[in-house]
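TICKET: design request
STATUS: open
ATTACHED STRUCTURE:
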């Protein structure tokens, strides 16, 4: 028995050594395999995206734009793949291409040009005026170039990397570019009225300026120009939208006549009311079904006591896609709306409707500077009060005949789109204004949501962080497994002894 036991013991030891050797070899091969997989994935810039919840690839409005566009659209992404925005932009473009196929829209060809590796094509793009870090949209013989820096809101650096305060709005920018390509070519010119102490679009003041919203308008294809009515016989027909942004001096009767004639010829007007100011446009607006009242909207739904938070919107193209967001207005003038005003029935009736209202507990205050504020049912306006309204004439027949509809949008506040208000990205002020401009001009402004930002769960690592994560994955994790295996083996051997 002793001889048999010695033979068994002598046979167990080699098997244990062989098991340890094969285990160490398997661990070493696993380390090599992991290292090769990570290197290949990093070299080809492959990413594994995990869908989070039930997030739609693109918004409904973007899908509508893609469905209305036919033919072939080429999108050239001219950027360095190491750029922090590269992953978000690539994901956005893939989402647009997939959505376009799903709605039987335009066939989208995606081309990626990295200036590090494709020097020849990069030189071709630069030669035809396409800067680095931009997207070129080409449809038939028309082209639109979008800078990637314009897809970031709130990032002063323009790079989009690492700024937690920035918001990626790539989907809206791309949808707007596709919409501009699909529509018949026409210049969208905005006449920004001047001469009555209005807010200026070229004011870059960080608090009271309007340069940020003017930049958004230019980015979406609008041409913004100052317009002075003095000396004009009529407002030029090429003005797509006339903007009166908080005029603080009364206009001349001749100027009101020019605006009235412009509207009768199918013009479009955006009127932002300055609180407590009479401009002379009030009778004109009332004739189109929107009355500007002397009351100021007051509500307990406020952030500072002098503003009002609006979250009740009607079903209209301007407000339909705000996704239950809130608009924050300052000292807001209350409006009254006449739902239907008879006009020339040969071209349709003038239809006026409420766009946004306050909560039911709000009211129209006659003396907003007197505190404490108390509602007087005999002299003041009961809530909910209207703070934004729209009017349209000829909107139904314009779809079937060559008739340009007249469109008017009146908002009871002007400061909600100043630079300081737009820096607070928790509200939908920017989207509300841009949707109104798009409706007035007859173009779709895309969506404020973003495929690249919120639809997927990704790491968002920089290059140095990727290298660190690779080192941890290849060395530290297998090393930890090996140490654990060694501890188990030592304990098991000590117990057998």
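STATUS: resolved
RESOLUTION: sequence designed for all positions
ATTACHED SEQUENCE:
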């Amino acid at each position: 028995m002793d001889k048999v036991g010695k033979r068994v013991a002598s046979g167990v030891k080699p098997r244990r050594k062989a098991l340890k050797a094969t285990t160490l070899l398997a661990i070493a091969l696993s380390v090599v395999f992991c290292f090769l997989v990570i290197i290949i994935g990093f070299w080809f810039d492959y990413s594994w995206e995990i869908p989070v919840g039930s997030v739609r690839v693109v918004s409904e409005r973007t899908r509508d734009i893609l469905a209305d566009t036919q033919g072939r659209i080429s999108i050239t992404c001219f950027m360095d793949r190491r750029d922090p925005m590269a992953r978000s932009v690539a994901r956005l473009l893939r989402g647009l291409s997939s959505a376009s196929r799903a709605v039987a829209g335009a066939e989208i060809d995606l081309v990626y040009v990295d200036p590090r590796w494709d020097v020849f094509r990069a030189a071709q793009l630069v030669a035809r005026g396409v800067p680095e870090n931009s997207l070129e949209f080409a449809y038939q013989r028309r082209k639109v170039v979008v800078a990637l820096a314009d897809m970031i809101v709130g990032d002063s650096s323009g790079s989009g990397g690492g700024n937690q305060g920035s918001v990626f709005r790539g989907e809206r920018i791309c949808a707007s570019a596709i919409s501009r390509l699909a529509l018949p070519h026409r210049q969208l010119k905005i006449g920004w009225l001047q001469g009555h102490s209005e807010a200026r679009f070229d004011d870059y003041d960080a608090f009271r300026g309007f340069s940020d919203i003017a930049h958004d308008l230019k980015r979406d294809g609008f041409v913004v120009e100052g317009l002075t009515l003095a000396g004009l016989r009529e407002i030029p027909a090429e003005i797509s939208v006339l903007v009166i942004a908080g005029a603080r001096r009364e206009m001349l009767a001749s100027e009101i006549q020019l605006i009235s004639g412009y509207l009768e010829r199918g013009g479009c007007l955006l009127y932002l009311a300055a609180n407590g100011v009479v401009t002379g446009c009030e009778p004109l607006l009332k004739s189109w079904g929107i009355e500007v009242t002397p009351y100021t909207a007051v509500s307990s739904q406020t952030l500072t006591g002098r503003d009002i938070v609006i979250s009740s919107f009607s079903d209209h193209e301007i407000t339909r896609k705000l996704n239950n967001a809130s608009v924050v207005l300052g000292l807001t003038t209350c409006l009254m709306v006449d739902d239907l005003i008879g006009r020339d029935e040969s071209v349709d009736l003038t239809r006026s409707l409420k766009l946004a209202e306050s909560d039911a507990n709000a009211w129209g205050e006659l003396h907003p500077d007197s505190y404490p504020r108390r509602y007087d049912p005999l002299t003041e306006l009961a809530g909910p009060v209207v703070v934004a309204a729209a009017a349209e004439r000829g909107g139904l027949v314009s779809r079937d005949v060559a008739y340009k509809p007249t469109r008017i949008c009146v908002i009871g506040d002007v400061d909600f789109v100043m630079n300081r208000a737009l820096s607070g990205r928790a509200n939908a002020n920017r989207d509300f204004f841009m949707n109104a401009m798009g409706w007035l001009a007859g173009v779709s402004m895309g969506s404020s949501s973003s495929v690249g930002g919120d639809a997927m769960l990704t790491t968002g690592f920089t290059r140095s962080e990727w290298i660190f994560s690779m080192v941890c994955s290849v060395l530290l994790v297998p090393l930890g497994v090996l140490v654990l295996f060694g501890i188990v083996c030592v304990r098991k051997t000590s117990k057998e002894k």
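CLOSING REMARK: The chain is about 35% helix and 20% strand. Residues 117 and 178 are 28 Å apart (CA to CA).
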